[in-house]
# Entry
Amino acid sequence: MENKETEILETAERMIQEGGYNAFSFREIAKAVGIKSSSVHYHYPTKADLGVAVASYYTDKFIAHLGDPVDLMAVGKDPIRQYVAAFRDAFIKDRRMCLCGLLGAEVKGLPNSVAAQTKLFFVRNIEWLTHAYEQQGHTTDARDNALRTLSILEGAMIVSNALDDVDVFYDTLKHFDETR
Amino acid sequence: MENKETEILETAERMIQEGGYNAFSFREIAKAVGIKSSSVHYHYPTKADLGVAVASYYTDKFIAHLGDPVDLMAVGKDPIRQYVAAFRDAFIKDRRMCLCGLLGAEVKGLPNSVAAQTKLFFVRNIEWLTHAYEQQGHTTDARDNALRTLSILEGAMIVSNALDDVDVFYDTLKHFDETR
DNA sequence: GTCTATAATTTGATAGAC
DNA sequence: GTCTATCAAATTATAGAC
# Structure
């Protein structure tokens, strides 16, 4: 991995994806990346600082990976299918939940700064999806479609995760793409 | 409230709904119900025991409140709309998340017994919804519709909760009922 | 940047009196 | 059933040496 800071972020990311904000500690992260907890504090002074950094890191990475919906259409790709594929690949291949889905569920128990950063993930994703639906000709119902697509994805990951059955994810999302 | 055991369950329920499994402690619950933490341990020896009890309590309460879909249809009610209303009322009126939605998201970080009980919530809800869709004439796609309805509800609560905007919940679910 | 050492607090849990 | 008292472990965080 590139550097210690990124290693810390990605370790914390995985831990949050498995058990939420309270499922990572400075000591556990330190052990995983091979340093001491005080050194983790050097990079991220408080737990809230690290939480904000992880949420921001995850959001930027996710949006960047999607690309621009206009560009996708220009090369003949359906941006909504690409969007569904982004969550599907992370969930099916790596069994990764949406980091901000977990944080968003427990937002009332989070430090304000982490809650605000979590909110930003959803604002940016709804913008992206709304733009994509607009590009596909939806004028009045673009945002409602965006909300539904985002919600069904977040929900499908939770239900499939709880049942420990990835087929549930496929079955829930199959109306987006009948081929598998 | 009826008795101490129920008070403990409902206190833990609220705490989990706000921040997940790691967001409640025996001491906090004890303080809330006016006893000492050792007395909470008397009722529920371990944290996993209490977690299982809360998940079971919540699931039974939720399913019982729904009633039987066949009975609902018999009195002219749409069981799917009733199902949506059950989550909507808890979320809008009391700002309550689905307890098992939170637990389901962090299932990898839960004790096995709590994870198993969480899974049961989803099994029973999918059964209920599938049965309801079958009653409405869906033969081959009843289960897929059940999964989609459950997922969109769980997802809509998370997105709306993260954005701290209940209108998002209404907008996401409005295709189930145009009137508000 | 990383370390040792440590502080202050919280946590899940138990023993035993009443 | 509830209490006091206590424990061992884990947590977030800081001070200061290298």
Chain B touches chain A through 48 residues (CB under 8 Å). Chain B has a mean pLDDT of 96. Residues 4, 35-36, 38-39, 42-43 of chain B lie near DNA strand D (CB under 10 Å from a C1'). Residues 133 and 141 of chain B are 8 Å apart (CA to CA).
